[in-house]
TrEMBL record:
The keyword DNA-binding applies. It comes from the Bacteria. SUPFAM superfamilies: Sigma2 domain of RNA polymerase sigma factors (SSF88946), Sigma3 and sigma4 domains of RNA polymerase sigma factors (SSF88659). Keywords: DNA-binding, Sigma factor, Transcription, Transcription regulation. This is RNA polymerase sigma factor SigF. Residues 41-109, 123-175, 207-255 form the RNA polymerase sigma-70 region domain. Pfam families: Sigma70_r2, Sigma70_r3, Sigma70_r4. InterPro entries: RNA_pol_sigma-70_dom, RNA_pol_sigma-B/F/G, RNA_pol_sigma70, RNA_pol_sigma70_r2, RNA_pol_sigma70_r3, RNA_pol_sigma70_r4, RNA_pol_sigma_r2, RNA_pol_sigma_r3/r4-like. Coiled coil: none annotated.
Amino acid sequence: MTLHRHQGRAGDDYADVPVSLRALRALGPGHDYDARRDGVITRCLPLAEHIARRFHGRGEPFDDLLQVARLGLVNAIDRFDAEKGDNFVAFAVPTIMGEVRRHFRDTGWAMHVPRRAKELHLAISSASERLAQSLGRSPSASEIAEELGLSMREVTEGLIARSAYQPDSMDAPPSAGTDGISLSDVVGDEDPELDNVEGYVAVKPYLDVLPPRERRILMLRFFGEMTQSQIAGRVGLSQMHVSRILARTLSQLREELREQ
């Protein structure tokens, strides 16, 4: 049974609400006003519960959905203008459902998580609240596992699932007191030199057997990032001589690698 299909009957069930709201508006602020407003809210609570149940089973605790739906109901009661129409349900239902949908948008899972992990997360959250009240402190993972009859591995999986609930923004500071620095500034990135590792491994045996002078010149050029004139001054040779040694050594290494 859907609310939309039986909205006419539901509207009839709450046909007295617009009358009560008109009388409420006529009272104006005061003690009796608050008491009668509370009475109208209590009268309409089943409508909020019905909508909360429609959204149950989507990863959010029913108690949370009920609280949000009741907030939407209060908003609907405060905003409904009984002078412009008598169908309170037609106004209240989209107002309440909009509040529940915003709750899912703002607090729902930020990425796809297996249902089992979501259920673990919810069970662990409930157990943590119960244990915190009885222990007077935050419970340990082992205490949560014992409370729920789960293994430490299952509890760990549930705790890890929390990170998918609301991830941190890469623009947020990594910790308190780090103004001006974002998380993206301190997260590691892929080292571009990783692409050269295979080349280093392949050429190393041939570098090891080079004559000391050729190996030193090669190392100064490609690992020390020195120019040919700087190398010439370091090893006591002319720049032309250094250039010929580099060309001959590189050609030899290319030929040996090609043969391999």
